[in-house]
Design goal:
By secondary structure, this protein is an all-alpha fold. Helices cover 67% and strands 0% of the residues. The protein has helices spanning 4-11, 19-26, 35-50, 54-74, 77-80, 91-105, 113-122, 127-150, 163-168, 179-204.
Amino acid sequence: VTRIGELESFLGKPDDDDFVEMAQLLGARMVVGSSRAWDSYIERILEGGVFSRGNHFMTRAAQEIRARHAWREANGGWENDKDVKECRGGLRDLELLMLIWKVHDRARDSIGDSFWERLAERHPERRGAFTELHEASDFLNRLRDVYRLTIAPVNRLHEDELDRAAQVMGYSSRVNRSGAGRLWDEFLAHRRRVAEHVDEMLDHFNL
């Protein structure tokens, strides 16, 4: 257990390598306890230690995204990148993009599926993009959960093993494409949309 005072002390000594800790703090949510304790956490930790260094966090998050994309491109490329979490346009990209927007907006709401809806409310001009990101998040999380339950507890997908997952997710065979093939096509389509939005939004923030 780490006390708020200890977190405050840690964040009071800025370090270029504290990105991981800041990301974990941004993703925290209250499970039990009083609203007073949560308000203290918001004011002393998020406002005082994270949001106040927003540019630093957003820059480091963008660097992590771009470095991971470059490494994965150099080690197999798009077609061979089948890790639903770490691939370009995958769950890790969605998570970091949410955190970037949370810091940008100095938002106090918790990270989760409903966060995309609240982003759309705050930025109605981007409602279409946030809706696509929300849909991609729902799909990719469900695909990972079903794959891990029906095939193997891993994040790396194999197209030739998707038959059972396709059945569970309602992807039946068509004349020219199997249910597994249709599910795989949907996986790639959501990835492309996420990747496009990530690139556009990082450019928008000049990151």
